[in-house]
Amino acid sequence: MKSKIAVMADPDTVTGFMLGGIKDGFPIENMEEAGEKLKELRKEYSIIITTEKIGDYYRATIDKMSSEGALPMIIEIPDKTGSIDRESDPIRELIKRVIGVEMVE
Amino acid sequence: MAQEMIEGVNPTRMELLKLKQREKLAVKGYSLLKEKRNALIMEFFNILERVKGSRENVAEKLQEAYQDLTAAQIVMGDLAVKKAAMSVTESVDVDIDSRSVMGVVVPLIESETAQRTIVERGYGFMDTSVKLDEAAKKFEESIQLIIELGEIEKTIMLLAGEIESTKRRVNALEHIIIPRLENTVKYIEMRLEEMERENFVRLKMIKKTMEETEVANG
After folding, report:
1. Mean pLDDT, chain B cut into blocks of 10 residues (218 residues total)
2. Is A46 helix (H, G, I), strand (E, B) or coil?
3. pLDDT value, residue B18
4. Does B170 touch chain A (CB under 8 A)?
5. Rounded distance between C-alpha atoms, residue B140 and residue B137, angstroms
6. What angle, rounded to 10 degrees, do the helices at B13-51 and B54-76 form?
7. Beta-carbon contacts of residue B45 (< 8 Å; ≥ 6 apart)
8. What percent of chain A has pLDDT over 90?
9. Which residues on neighbouring strands pair with residue A47, listed in sequence order?
10. List of chain A residues whose C-beta atoms are within 8 Å of the C-beta of residue B152
11. Cβ–Cβ contacts within 10 Å for residue B134, how many?
């Protein structure tokens, strides 16, 4: 299956990824429009790259979308200000809950 | 131990047979589910090996890429970088397949990011800086890593969800449903035996009285 990748992030990140070869970039100027955009994009694209900031802003929406099925795949990456320091990594939390012990360093 | 059992069953042979049938089914289901859970956990451990450090790799690579991008922006100006970025040709070719792990559909991504030379990227050399080339190269590499990371994280999420629900079902069967069925079966068996004994005694008594009356009459 042919799949499309989209980048939805702040303008600089989008420029960067366009430089890397992803043509479908959607610069987001303010957080409010990101939610709408995300709903549009999920119909068309199977991989959506977004920043952690947007991810945190729309945590509930994104979690719901990701748990619904295999696609779309929403990947959160740090933006140019660096990654947000989280007290707990969500993936690690998940592993802890499932296995019962801490596994990943 | 308080014996949990199903409320409101009649201690009859019909009910006993039905319950035994249900218990057999529950035990069978339990062992199947347990196998499923074990297989899922094994798969989960396999994927855990791959997740180790991949997020850090992505963050690191991206950090470098952002630095080069900023440098390019400083040298060439914001707009020029954007212009160059617009003219870059598409590089990523992603095929998403899915595979099924014990009924959980997880994505399987085959991606091909062509490692391109500067010429192939598609922007002009006249007004671009070396930093731009480096940034483009690093972003290409990052994209590859990000896609891989996405696949792994998605798989982990889906597997984890399935493991949780399977675990809950296994536990419910093991600790609640099967003991409850067992107890109910035991209860009915005991009641039936008790009824049989009562009946036996009653028959003995009748026999005795009959014999006594016979002796008195005869």
Report:
1. 73 90 94 91 84 81 86 83 78 78 79 69 74 82 84 84 88 90 92 94 95 88
2. coil
3. 92
4. no
5. 5
6. 40
7. none
8. 0
9. A5, A73
10. none
11. 17
Enter the pTM of the model: 0.76
Nearest to B185 by CA among B48, B15, B35: B15
Q: How many CA atoms lie within 13 A of B82 on its CB side?
A: 9
DSSP helix/strand/coil, A25: strand
Nearest to A98 among B85, B96, B163 (CB): B163
Whole-number Å distance between alpha carbons of B196 and B4: 25
Rounded to whole angstroms, how far apart are CA atoms B163 and B156? 10
For A87, phi then psi, to 5°, come to -70, -40
Q: What is the pLDDT of residues B56-85, one digit of tens each?
A: 888 888 888 888 888 888 888 888 888 887
Instruction: Give B98-123 pLDDT, tens digit per residue.
Output: 888 778 887 787 777 666 776 667 77
Inter-helix orientation angle A59-68/A31-44, to 10°: 10
Task: State the residue for tokens 């218990």.
Answer: B23
| Averaged pLDDT of chain B | 84
Residue B111, classed as helix, strand or coil, is strand
Residue A18 near residue B141 (C-beta atoms within 8 A): no
Q: Contact A71/B96, CB-based, under 8 Å?
A: yes
